[in-house]
Specification:
Elements lengths: L1 E7 L8 E6 L14 H13 L6 E7 L2 E7 L6 H15 L6 E5 L10 H13 L13 E7 L6 H22 L7 H9 L7 E5 L1 H7 L2 H7 L7 E8 L8 E11 L19 H15 L5 E11 L11 E3 L5 E3 L7 H16 L3 E6 L4 H6 L4 E5 L2 H14 L3 E3 L17 E2 L8 H10 L8 E5 L5 E2 L9 E2 L4 H11 L2
Parallel strand pairs: 1-6, 2-4, 2-5, 5-6, 9-10, 9-13, 12-16, 13-17, 14-15
Antiparallel strand pairs: 3-4, 7-8, 8-10, 11-12, 14-17, 18-19
Helix pairs in contact: 2-3, 3-4, 4-8, 7-9, 8-13, 9-12, 11-13
């Protein structure tokens, strides 16, 4: 279902469905001037007879007219406003009423941009991926914001950019593997040039010349190409160091020669979710003309078994010069990220690097689908991510890194091995592996989003499927701390 939002600078309307905001006790004195006396009396009497346990009440004034009351506390948080919008969508998505007027003048809480967050919640919850269904949901909800407190054009564009970036990430993750293979993915990223992003694509020939053998090794069993793509946004006129975001883009992960079980393998289309977050974030930054320099780097491969596939026992030399013994070809994401991380640090010399990846099943065992795992070499960056995550309810939980874990990935035959065969600490040893490819002590954080990128049952702001987790988190980090 599509949600369409428009704005009109009028205060009164005789619309069939009108939405007002009231306080927690459903005190409606603030809407008295916007409805008739009889409607006011009718609603007042009904409120007195209701147990006020819900945050949204609606009253059928006639067969063609509803008055809807949305209650909020005076100290409401932005995430609560978004959840309120999602609740509004849930109530009315099956309603026969599809036209709503929202009266902005009735907003009484103190949250800056309350309406923006409320509308964003409605839109995020409305997302669906029905591209390949022969019968699509053609229904639309038309929402018109009226009054003197409508969001400014700048704020409208900001929230639209966040929605567009999140939806773009969700779209990428939702695509099947036969459609969104690395070759097609590159085409879609290149199309973002029209938003003002600078795109550079490194194909296999260029990657071989650079010596990115850990990344190339993952994709060598596939008939599709392997790529590293850099996406730059220059929102500042100076040449200040950019913020860097690196994403794992394994478009489909069979496990390679270390083949995964057949059950649920179809879900491995979302093993590129880390890269989708990076691409979606960069699109958001460009759309809202963010006052920051940033770069997104994604490694795009397909991990397939085949006559040319990487074997367990192979030893490869990374871009950093360090050698890796491949003990399990299904521990492939860290190999893609290894080359991408070192290249990003060396090429762009960023203020920090944050990588995102659906890296380990172990993080789901640890944190389920409530938190992403955070591993970092920097307390300041970690605390900023935790704070941003709490604000947008895309939460992270810091997990340990320690040199004592290094012995679990040391190899007898190379500088390191790509898995810990002793057992235990699967997510930590994966992060410990990645840390070895940060060579110049750049502040770095790794987000293991395996439990967050895809939801079978839906969450507060999504209805199931790809979540786009990470776009809003990183956008909030940038907005609060680096613009």
């Amino acid at each position: 279902m599509t949600v369409l939002v428009s704005y009109k600078n009028i205060s009164k309307t005789n619309s069939s469905n009108i939405v007002f905001f009231v306080d927690e006790k459903f005190n409606i004195s603030n809407i008295k001037n916007y409805i008739s006396r009889s409607e006011f009396s009718f609603i007042s009497d009904l409120i007195k007879s209701k147990k006020l346990t819900k945050k949204i009440l609606y009253f059928d004034i006639s067969s063609k007219r509803q008055i809807i009351l949305v209650s909020s506390s005076g100290k409401i948080k932005s995430s609560e406003a978004e959840n309120l919008g999602a609740e509004f969508y849930n109530i009315f998505k099956t309603s026969t009423q599809k036209e709503f007027i929202i009266n902005s003048d009735s907003v009484t809480n103190n949250l800056i941009n309350f309406l923006g967050y409320f509308l964003l919640g409605i839109q995020l919850k409305s997302y669906s991926f029905d591209k390949y269904k022969s019968k699509k949901n053609q229904k639309k909800i038309n929402i018109t914001i009226t009054g003197k407190k409508i969001p400014s054009l700048k704020d409208q564009n900001k929230f639209k950019a966040i929605k567009e970036g999140t939806f773009y990430a969700r779209d990428l993750v939702s695509e099947p593997g036969n459609i969104l293979h690395p070759d097609e993915y590159v085409k879609r990223i290149r199309a973002l040039k029209k938003e003002g992003l600078q795109i550079k694509v490194y194909d296999e020939k260029k990657l071989k010349k650079l010596g990115m053998n850990t990344l190339l090794g993952v994709g060598q069993g596939s008939i599709r190409g392997s790529y590293l793509v850099t996406i730059e946004w220059k929102g500042l006129k100076d040449n200040s160091k950019p913020l860097a975001f690196v994403g794992k883009g394994v478009c489909f992960d069979t496990g390679g020669i270390s083949l995964k079980p057949a059950k649920f393998m179809e879900d491995m289309t979302y093993d590129m979710a880390g890269s989708a977050v990076v691409v979606g974030l960069m699109k958001s930054l460009a759309l809202r003309k963010a006052k920051v320099n940033a770069v997104g780097v994604v490694g795009l491969v397909e991990n397939m078994p085949g006559g040319n596939a990487q074997r367990p026992g192979d030893i490869v030399k990374s871009y950093s010069g360090k050698t890796v013994e491949i003990l399990n070809t299904d521990a492939e994401g860290r190999l893609v990220l290894a080359d991408a991380l070192t290249y990003t640090e060396e090429k762009f010399k960023p203020k920090f690097i944050i990588d995102l990846a659906t890296l380990t099943g172990a993080i789901i065992v640890s944190l389920g689908s409530e938190y992403a795992g955070l591993f970092s070499n920097n307390d300041k960056l970690s605390n900023e991510l935790i704070e941003a995550g709490e604000k947008v309810e895309e939460k992270v939980w810091r997990m340990p890194l320690n040199k004592n874990f290094d012995k679990l990935i040391d190899s007898k035959n190379a500088d390191m091995q790509n898995i810990n065969y002793v057992g235990g600490a699967g997510s930590t040893t994966a992060a410990q592996f990645l840390q070895r490819f940060i060579l110049n002590k750049t502040p770095w954080a790794h987000l293991d989003i395996a439990g967050m990128a895809f939801s079978k049952y839906g969450g507060a702001l999504n209805s199931g499927g790809a979540t786009g987790y990470g776009v809003r988190l990183l956008n909030k980090l940038i907005e609060d701390k680096y613009e």
